[in-house]
Amino acid sequence: MTSTIELRNTLTLDYEVGPFISLFVSFNEISNKNEYLNLIDKIKDAFTAKHDEIVWPRYERKLRRFNFDRAKHIGNGTGVAIYVSFKAIHSFDLAQPVKTQLSIEDTMNISQLVKEIQSQLHYHVLALFDDEFKVFRVDNGNFSVVNTPNKPLSVLVDNDKEKYFKLVDEYVKELFGDDNYLPTVIVANDENRQLFTQLTTLKNFSKDISYNFDDKNIDAEKLNDIIEHFNQSFLNKLAEDNNIKYESASSKHQVATDLRDIISNAISGKIDTLYISEDAYDKTLNDLAITTIGFAGEVIILPKKQMPMHLDVAAITLKF
């Protein structure tokens, strides 16, 4: 799992020396160690076409020492991002769909990692029925069942649904403990969802995102369908929030749409949020993203149709 802090630390290491090999590996396309080793031969051809062959062994050693099998089977993701400099190698597990891609430049290609960071989702799912409930935790599409010891029973309140839901609410709130900052979404029929929504005191209960379902026997396939629904709902809400944020900043004259103005703000550390169209992403915009993250700004890569004013690049700026 990649975080903005991990990425920022990697980008700002003083000892890093280019050129940089940026390699995104899809486990669907490169499925075993032999295929990975064959890929290294192709990387050599691309590297020596641009740089002195005498430098290549420093990079090759690091690539061949990388434990591909461990990355595939332990990482439990869709692929891996590998960055190799003259002195070091860094790798990040990928959870989002990825295509095998290579670039060799004087800076790291961070596009896939930016997409990973902006699409990370962590939340709880409460599956609530008339006299039963289950709790799941979802991390980037992977779910786990939350153990619910000594959970309340509806018979303790004579099957009074309102009283039972209040008990569930208090129990779940205590169960989450330090994780109560995560949003909670509900799986229930309309009647139960409406009643619980009225009663709940959960701090981050999501009233706008839910799933209508009334079968206690939720199998793994159905649960995956439910999680996919929730993931898309969260991402849609994120897109809406980004639009609202940009429009609010625009009304205060705190946006920039001219590339030269955005670059000037970036190198001065004055970008709050940088929006880049994935269709327009190139080396210039990649370097702009690196600079923005280095100054603790946020970078978001979007399809062109979701970009502010359908631009290739835009930014919300900071005022000091």
Topology:
Blueprint: H1 4-11, E1 20-26, H2 33-48, H3 56-65, H4 68-75, E2 79-84, E3 89-94, E4 101-105, H5 111-118, E5 122-128, E6 133-139, E7 142-145, H6 161-176, E8 184-188, H7 190-199, E9 205-212, H8 220-251, E10 255-256, H9 259-267, E11 271-277, H10 283-294, E12 298-302, E13 313-317
Parallel strand pairs: 5-8, 8-9, 11-12
Antiparallel strand pairs: 1-2, 1-4, 2-3, 5-6, 6-7, 10-13, 11-13
Helix pairs in contact: 2-3
Overall outline = globular
How big a fraction of the residues is strand?
Answer: 15-25%
| DSSP E strands, number | 13
Query: Over the alpha carbons, how many angstroms does the gyration radius reach?
Result: 24 Å
Number of helices: 10
Mean pLDDT: 91
Q: Please estimate the helix content.
A: 40-55%
What class would the helix/strand composition place it in?
alpha+beta
> CATH class of the largest domain, anyone?
Alpha Beta
CATH superfamily of the largest domain: eRF1 domain 2
Notes on the structure:
This protein has three domains: 4-118, Translation, Eukaryotic Peptide Chain Release Factor Subunit 1, Chain A; 122-237, Nucleotidyltransferase, domain 5; 252-317, 60s Ribosomal Protein L30, Chain: A. 40% of the residues lie in helices and 23% in strands. The protein is built from ten helices and 13 strands. It has helices spanning 4-11, 33-48, 56-65, 68-75, 111-118, 161-176, 190-199, 220-251, 259-267, 283-294; strands at 20-26, 79-84, 89-94, 101-105, 122-128, 133-139, 142-145, 184-188, 205-212, 255-256, 271-277, 298-302, 313-317. The strands form three sheets. A five-stranded mixed sheet has the order 7-6-5-8-9. The mean pLDDT is 91.
